[in-house]
Amino acid sequence: KFKLTRVGNEKMMHPLVHEISSSALARRGLMSTPDPETLETEIMLLRARIQGFRNGLVSSKAKPNEQQKYHDLIEKCETRLAFYGKTLANVKSGKAPCNPDENRKLLNQEESSIITGAEIIATTLSSCSSRKISDALSDSTQFSCCIVDEATQATEPEILIPLHHDICHL
Questions:
Q1: What predicted TM-score, i.e. pTM, was given to this entire model?
Q2: Which terminus of the chain has fewer Cβ atoms in its 10 Å neighbourhood, N or C?
Q3: What is the sign, positive or negative, of the torsion defined by CA atoms of 21, 22, 28, 31?
């Protein structure tokens, strides 16, 4: 099995393809942890990660760009920690788990990690330069190959757009 995701305008996707869209996978991933024990474990792990990142930030003579990376990682973990804490409180009180759509920042982080972890990303040429993909692939992710199948819908300059993402073969 390959880790496949589709990135682009959800309204234009076929309903069957929508199930593997990065946004649908992110929503599903965030909604799949309503078990209190699992949530408590995740919260403890996140607290440990945050402390580890803070220790690494303090103890190392990190360069400015490394310091920013630590700050970004801490912020991501804290956002997720707040979501899991709220979800745990809701589950323990008998309410419905938190809806990830309420926390756009966390949903974007989850979607970004899905795109980053994907082995195959299906998208149109117009969507391959979207902010969603650019943000997810900004940390020097390299593709070994890009297949362009636009059935003459694209112009020649548009075909070069994927080269922004450090592609070896087009």
A1: 0.68
A2: N
A3: negative
